[in-house]
Specification:
The chain is built from 22 helices and no strands. With 390 residues, the chain is mostly helical.
């Protein structure tokens, strides 16, 4: 039998009009989601309230959800909590999970990881997969408990086995990185595929990453791009950034700096640091855009102000060369030191160069050698060459 929401609505309405609480809740569910009717949160709330007035716990939970989301009503975490508690007191596992989330995030209540865990455990005892997954997340992040990837895996697996896509993704992530388990790209791929089939966007992006790197599968840039596009079209920032990399580096596609920067912008707008840096580099070099050191500086500052060493070094380079700004060795040194303090080998080499040439500082070959050794120890080839020659 094919699904027919319109016919479902007709029969639910007959039962709901006779006061059947389950049917009233189902009417609300159809209006909330726009299944068989025009989506109408106010009408959904009306039906949920009719069912809730008879003590129907799913309807009480659903009212809480509308308040939580601010759908048809002003967003109100405290009101959401009140309704969740009504349902939770009747043993509703989903409501118990949602109360746990309010405590975990401090939404409408003081943040309390222990209280979050207590509610998640109640939901998990009733077999709620969301609660099981959230217990796993607390162990994964070490929130209110000692971080324990093995325990996180145990809870993620319980939820994953019930088809929870977020848990399936999290389980795959543990296998990919070898956290709490031996690294196993094949097992990671298996769980990513399960999650991706259920629409988990991060899993779709991760499958692309496995194909890009040839982990558990033959490296296949075309297949990686296919998965990245699926995820990117749904707003996944990592996938958008990687598509930009593919166009920049001609990985399975013709090199196209214009297309690369278009995708980098999408990721950069979501705060992806690597994408923001890449846009800065494109403006610095005039790749895919007119060369514009001022615009390069603007993008590097976005990231440098967040403590990113690559961008800090790049700002130093702009000041050193006088690109887009007046040449200023002192300001260059200041930015190089910021980056060097984060272990950036390029910046360490650049500081050594300033000391070696007496630019912005008194010439000091001992200091130059010290910084070049730091840079060489971090793999910088220019520093190695300088040390070999000096």
């Amino acid at each position: 039998m094919s699904r027919d929401y319109g016919e479902a609505l007709r029969w639910y309405r007959k039962a709901a009009d006779q006061g059947y609480a389950v049917a009233q809740n189902n009417m609300g569910w159809l209006y909330e989601n726009g299944w068989g009717v025009v989506q109408d949160y106010a009408e959904a709330m009306r039906w949920f309230r009719l069912a809730a007035s008879q003590g129907n716990s799913p309807a009480q939970n659903n009212i809480g959800w509308l308040y939580f989301q601010g759908w048809g009503v002003p967003q109100d975490y405290e009101a959401a909590m009140r309704w969740y508690l009504k349902a939770a007191e009747q043993g509703d596992g989903l409501a118990q999970d949602r109360i746990g989330r309010l405590y975990e995030e401090g939404w409408g209540v003081a943040q309390d990881y222990s209280e979050a865990m207590r509610w998640y455990r109640q939901g998990a005892e009733r077999g709620n997969a969301y609660a099981e997954k959230n217990i796993g997340r607390l162990y994964y992040l070490g929130r209110g408990v000692v971080q324990d990837y093995g325990e996180a895996m145990r809870w993620f697996r319980q939820a994953a086995d019930q088809g929870n896509s977020s848990a399936q993704y999290s389980l795959a992530n543990l296998y990919q990185h070898g956290w709490g388990v031996a690294r196993d790209y094949g097992e990671a791929m298996r769980w990513y595929r399960k999650a991706a089939a259920r629409g988990e966007v991060a899993a779709q992006s991760s499958i692309g990453w496995l194909y890009e790197n040839g982990w558990s599968v033959a490296r296949d840039y075309g297949e990686a791009m296919r998965w990245y596009r699926t995820a990117a079209d749904q707003g996944d920032a990592f996938a958008q950034k990687e598509i930009g990399v593919f166009y920049r580096d001609a990985r399975g596609v013709a090199q196209d700096y214009g297309e690369a920067i278009r995708w980098f912008r999408k990721a950069a707008d979501q705060g992806v640091i690597e994408a923001q840096n890449n846009i800065g580099v494109f403006y610095e070099n005039g790749s895919g855009v007119a060369q514009d050191y001022g615009e390069a500086m603007r993008w590097f500052h976005k990231v440098a102000d967040q403590g990113d060493a690559f961008a800090q070094n790049k700002i130093g380079v702009l000041y050193y060369n006088g690109w887009g700004v007046a040449r200023d060795y002192g300001e260059a040194m200041r930015w190089f030191r910021m980056a060097a303090d984060h272990g950036d080998a390029r910046a360490q080499n650049n500081i050594g160069w300033l000391y070696a040439n007496g630019e912005g500082v008194p010439r000091d070959l001992a200091q130059a050698r010290e910084w070049m050794q730091k840079a060489a120890g971090n793999g910088n080839e220019l520093a190695k060459k300088w040390l070999a020659a000096n």
